[in-house]
Amino acid sequence: MDERSAGHRVVLITKTVFLLTLFLLCQLGSEFKFRSAAENDIEVGDLPRGEVAGLPDMLSSLQWRLQLPKLSSYCRETPELSLNIIITCPVDKGTPHISKITMDSLALTGIISEHVAALTHLQKLDLSDNTIHGSIPDQIGQLDQLITLNLGQNLLTGKIPPSLGRLSSLQTLSLLENGLNGTLPPELGKLSNLQKLRLPSNNLRGDLPKDYENLKNLTIFGIGGNYLSGPIPTFIAKWVNLYALFISDLQTMGFSFPKSANLSSISSLILRNCSITGSIPPYIGSWNQLAYLDLSFNDLTGGIPNTFKKLFLYELYLTGNMLNGTLPDWIYSNVRDKGDLAYNEFIFPEPETHKNLPNNNSRINLFLSISFSDFDFNFQWTCDICTHTINNNAAVTSEPKNRTFPEEIMREYCPAGQKKSQYNYNLHINTGGEEHNIEGIRYEADNSTSNFYVNKPAYNWAYSCNGYFLADSTADSRAFIQKATCGAAVTDAPLYDEARLCPNSLKYYGFCLRNGNYTVSLYFSEIVFERNDDYSSSGKRVFDIYIQSELMRKDFNIKEVARHSNNVTIQNFTASVHDHLLEIELFWAGKGSILNPPYFHGPLISAISVTPNFEVNRPGPGGLSKKVIVGIVLGAVLALILFMALMWRLGWIGDRELRVTTVNLRGKSYTLKQVKVATRNFSPRNVIGTGRFGTVYKAELPDQTVAVKMLSSQSKHVIDQIGTEVYALTTLKHENIVEFLDGYSKKDLNLLIYEYMEKGSLERALFDANSSTRLDWPTRVRICHGIAKGLKYLHEDNPSRKIVHRNIKPSNILLDGNLNAKVSDLGLAKLYDEENPYKFIQEKGTVVYMAPKYAMRKAITEKVDAIVLHSKGRLSELVDKQMPNEHVVMKQAKIILELAMRCVDQSPTLRPTMSEVVSELERISN
């Protein structure tokens, strides 16, 4: 009986162990060999050792910093922190293989390793929109099963490997927006299955090889923005499957369209700046699928073919040709969205057709497109035709006229024979912005959003803008004015707050200038492609600079010259004015970034300054002699000096206000004069930070150091708007809040004084290569903890009222000498009103990091600050590659990642409060 019982126990234990083993095998199938119902319960083998070893080697070369999942027996699609690796599993007994790798937009900074050749069954490789550098390895040509290869929007250099011609299965090849050079390899003509070939915006040279005639399956072909020479080959007209064709900026002597072309499937045809001569062929009008047509900046003559009347184009661009003939009245109804016919020589229609012409809301730009051969116009009529307003009362005259717009301006407002003193001798424009006075120079406002503008009533300058944004056809003229999100730390900073943007050609005209030599200063700052704001670190803005029709800079790249986004650069040129007219043109030649968000290519300029290189002599009044004039001036100056000295002595002028007004800083009084001297009279050498509303200076007083923020004169409304709330900040006392000490606001001097933080901002510590501050992992966790405690105090513990910061970002987190974090820039914070949580949604501020509730105009709660803890990062970038790959670090990083995911939950009620965040970070710290 005991033996039988013992035997039963052994069998029971054996069955139990067996069942538990099966259960574990089922649960841990991704870590062991497994069976899949989707694969008919057939056992799958391991990945080949070459692929298991080759993938980590390749990712390591790309500077991929996160740990890969175990791949030895991995057989499913695995999105892992935005990494998408697809491993194809066989339907019968066999070997699985890595088939697809998609790693676009992950901020990869390394190179493409030759180890990619180990992934022999790869069908798709997408590494686009990163900052990968180096060359394309020849070994990619060994991946004979590759169908899609996308390496676009990187920093790749070198030649296109001829070995790519061996990829017989390839259907998509995209290498756009890199720095590839050399000639096009003829071997690519062997890719008979190729459907999409994208090579725009590189440095490729030479002709299109004849071998490409075999690419008859192409549906998309783009090669604009290179240095290709020779005419467009006629064999392209035989690519009958072509849907989109983009060729631009050819270096050639000129050629005409072929006699025939059968591109009936084409929807987008862009042949821009290709030196095409002759007339537009009528057969284009038979391509009824055509929606976008751009033949701008060629040398086309003749009229618009009548066959175009059959087309219903979304966009039509014929800018910068020599087209003539009567402007068709049907052009306005057949172009549905936008059109640009500027810079041509069309004849204006007869008076009875005026009713069909555009009104103020026209989408057709006709600037300098009309040859006024049939009518006599006054100047106002001419300007109105430029801005699309038609005056039907023009009088018919037999006198032929063919004046361009600049000539018309000069004729009316700068007639020949006028006195020298009546001419202008300088010009200062804040392009894209408001009027500003910088160091005694008045920069005129230039904030129009039209394609064309004349500065009235002075009529001393004008601009014209042509073209469209290739990757964003929905963008309208509001995109022509771009606003900076980060202020420039220079004396003329207000000039860089806004800039004028134009897709293709931006021209500025200076009228009625005195003849002679001038210095033309062009002010630039890249405020659109900003790494910290939209991760467009590979975004490049490239354009050419012409002055008086002479090329002054080829392929000018703002970020490259200024060495970073938001940095400034001033380019100085010498220009000769002979006919009292100055012309400045910034021209986009197809190079640089097209597809990088926010998709705004083309020239960008912040200001223009034109000053004479000759002495400006003004005649004296009433013909007085120079000696008399000098005597009068000296006497007046002496009298003025004596009067000013008396006024100063009486304390009516000067710095009396600064000498008698005091501020209280930690229990000690200082005059404003002492504070000003402590900043070395607000010297640039003492600048420790800049922002949209002012500059922060280090002030070294006799027994303490403070930070003084001087608001710009244009930002005084910030103090007026916040009112007593600013002074309520003096009651905020917390170890993780930068202490607000005192403030002063009167006339043109507006100061906010804070405690000084020795280590500067968290942004500088993390991202500035010149910073000596090093943050190890425990310090970073402690900084996160300190930020959370500071926000908790504002949200929950403040004894008066809740405060919502609204602008949490690394530059607003400051570090003291012990690397303790403190929340700063509370001047933009708002007292939170539970009864009216909507009250400041519409108020303007530096809202760079924005919670979803802001964007959706929903009620604001104190939890909006939780969203910004994670809103700017990508999950893959939250683990710094400088951090040690240790178990404790990775475990804590995982917890913080999970906490961050909760902070960005769509529902505010599911996001943690700052108390919960503080508790979680305290648990990690301990």
From TrEMBL:
<dbReference type="Pfam" id="PF23598">
    <property type="entry name" value="LRR_14"/>
</dbReference>
<feature type="transmembrane region" description="Helical">
    <location>
        <begin position="6"/>
        <end position="26"/>
    </location>
</feature>
<keyword id="KW-0433">Leucine-rich repeat</keyword>
<dbReference type="InterPro" id="IPR032675">
    <property type="entry name" value="LRR_dom_sf"/>
</dbReference>
<dbReference type="InterPro" id="IPR051824">
    <property type="entry name" value="LRR_Rcpt-Like_S/T_Kinase"/>
</dbReference>
<keyword id="KW-0808">Transferase</keyword>
<dbReference type="InterPro" id="IPR000719">
    <property type="entry name" value="Prot_kinase_dom"/>
</dbReference>
<keyword id="KW-0597">Phosphoprotein</keyword>
<keyword id="KW-1133">Transmembrane helix</keyword>
<keyword id="KW-0723">Serine/threonine-protein kinase</keyword>
<dbReference type="InterPro" id="IPR017441">
    <property type="entry name" value="Protein_kinase_ATP_BS"/>
</dbReference>
<keyword id="KW-0325">Glycoprotein</keyword>
<keyword id="KW-0472">Membrane</keyword>
<dbReference type="Pfam" id="PF11721">
    <property type="entry name" value="Malectin"/>
</dbReference>
<keyword id="KW-0732">Signal</keyword>
<dbReference type="GO" id="GO:0004674">
    <property type="term" value="F:protein serine/threonine kinase activity"/>
</dbReference>
<dbReference type="InterPro" id="IPR011009">
    <property type="entry name" value="Kinase-like_dom_sf"/>
</dbReference>
<keyword id="KW-0067">ATP-binding</keyword>
<keyword id="KW-0677">Repeat</keyword>
<feature type="transmembrane region" description="Helical">
    <location>
        <begin position="628"/>
        <end position="648"/>
    </location>
</feature>
<protein>
    <recommendedName>
        <fullName>non-specific serine/threonine protein kinase</fullName>
        <ecNumber>2.7.11.1</ecNumber>
    </recommendedName>
</protein>
<feature type="binding site">
    <location>
        <position position="709"/>
    </location>
    <ligand>
        <name>ATP</name>
    </ligand>
</feature>
<keyword id="KW-0812">Transmembrane</keyword>
<dbReference type="GO" id="GO:0005524">
    <property type="term" value="F:ATP binding"/>
</dbReference>
<dbReference type="InterPro" id="IPR055414">
    <property type="entry name" value="LRR_R13L4/SHOC2-like"/>
</dbReference>
<keyword id="KW-0547">Nucleotide-binding</keyword>
<dbReference type="GO" id="GO:0016020">
    <property type="term" value="C:membrane"/>
</dbReference>
<dbReference type="InterPro" id="IPR021720">
    <property type="entry name" value="Malectin_dom"/>
</dbReference>
<feature type="domain" description="Protein kinase">
    <location>
        <begin position="682"/>
        <end position="926"/>
    </location>
</feature>
<keyword id="KW-0418">Kinase</keyword>
<keyword id="KW-0675">Receptor</keyword>
<dbReference type="Pfam" id="PF00069">
    <property type="entry name" value="Pkinase"/>
</dbReference>
